[in-house]
């Protein structure tokens, strides 16, 4: 299968260029949000709150995602003038870290829940499947920008999508790691959705999401051509592996009742949990 590269700019309105990256990311966020709203309703959480949650969580997630990318790619953002400083926030040109978006979105969710006196754990469980789905679909933005690829592929038999993608700037074929991650996260979406409907303990769904996603990212960081390293240690691999183990341990402790998180209110009210 041949996947032809596209012009990163979808269309222009006067001097404003609208990039495919932004279109894919925005679409992924909206689809994830819709799924989260449907699941939140099953936990007795209103659409009005979910709208407010969206307005709190998404800006914080985008801000943290950009700042974390800048933090780990300091050489790309040397500031010599005010214009250079503005590049730090130019997310429409690409360059955000989903790993940074997770704590940013969680902070926004915390503030929204605090304002409305809604249990944060129930909200996190409700949005987890939608988040991983959005993360999967958003990877097509990386394809449009020709980024997030892996190691070069020289064997012509494997120079075909979905194994590889052609990177114009490099003039060669590279592992399509953006696609690998998308597929793994779609699988994760199915598993986390199953856990959401089967679990009767708060936070199990969200911690399962963190475990799955950190494992996926640890694997992908092994192949990524732009992975941040200190000496021979890939920071992403080490950090995500540690986070995956910690998340798994917490998930197990919740399931065996060593950490008590309670049960969703709506299940208790319906008498499904005594």
Provide structural commentary.
This protein is mainly alpha-helical and 274 residues long. The chain has one domain (9-269). Helix content is 61%, strand content 8%. The chain is built from nine helices and six strands, in the order E-E-H-H-H-H-H-E-E-H-H-E-E-H-H. It has helices at residues 20-41, 47-72, 82-87, 98-116, 120-144, 177-198, 204-223, 235-255, 265-269; strands spanning 9-13, 16-19, 164-167, 172-175, 229-230, 233-234. The strands form three sheets. The protein has a two-stranded antiparallel sheet with strand order 1-2. A two-stranded antiparallel sheet has the order 3-4. The protein has a two-stranded antiparallel sheet with strand order 5-6. A hairpin with a 2-residue loop joins strand 5 and strand 6. Helix 5 packs antiparallel against helix 6 (177-198). It is globular, with a radius of gyration of 20 Å. The relative contact order is 0.12.
For the CA atoms, what is the radius of gyration? Answer: 20 Å
Q: Write down the overall geometry.
A: globular
Number of helices: 9
Distance between the termini: 54 Å
Listing every helix as H and every strand as E from the N terminus to the C terminus, the arrangement reads EEHHHHHEEHHEEHH
Class per helix and strand makeup: mainly alpha
**Unreliable parts:** none
The domain tally reads 1
Strand content: 5-15%
Number of strands: 6
Largest sheet: 2 strands, antiparallel
Mean pLDDT: 87
Helix content: 55-70%
Side by side, the strands of the main sheet go: 1-2
């Amino acid at each position: 299968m041949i996947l032809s590269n596209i012009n990163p700019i979808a269309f222009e309105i006067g001097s404003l260029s609208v990039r495919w990256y932004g279109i894919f990311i925005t679409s992924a966020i909206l689809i994830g949000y819709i799924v989260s709203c449907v699941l939140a309703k099953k936990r007795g959480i209103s659409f009005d709150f979910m709208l407010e949650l969206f307005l709190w969580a998404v800006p914080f997630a985008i801000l943290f995602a950009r700042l974390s990318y800048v933090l780990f790619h300091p050489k790309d953002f040397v500031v010599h003038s005010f214009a250079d400083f503005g590049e730090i926030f130019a997310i429409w040109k690409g360059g955000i870290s989903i790993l940074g978006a997770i704590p940013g979105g969680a902070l926004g969710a915390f503030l929204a829940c605090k304002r409305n006196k809604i249990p944060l754990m129930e909200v996190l469980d409700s949005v987890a499947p939608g988040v991983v789905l959005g993360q999967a679909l958003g990877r097509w933005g990386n394809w449009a920008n020709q980024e997030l690829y892996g190691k070069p592929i020289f064997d012509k038999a494997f120079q075909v999508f979905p194994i590889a993608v052609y990177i114009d700037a490099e003039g060669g074929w590279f592992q399509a790691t953006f696609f690998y991650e998308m597929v793994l996260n779609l699988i994760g979406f199915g598993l986390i959705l199953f856990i959401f409907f089967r679990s009767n303990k708060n936070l199990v769904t969200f911690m399962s999401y963190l475990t799955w996603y950190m494992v996926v990212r640890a694997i992908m960081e092994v192949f990524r051509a732009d992975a941040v390293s200190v000496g021979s240690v890939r920071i992403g691999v080490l950090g995500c592996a540690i986070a995956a183990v910690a998340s798994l341990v917490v998930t197990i402790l919740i399931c065996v009742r060593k950490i008590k998180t309670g049960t969703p209110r709506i299940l208790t009210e319906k008498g499904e949990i005594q």
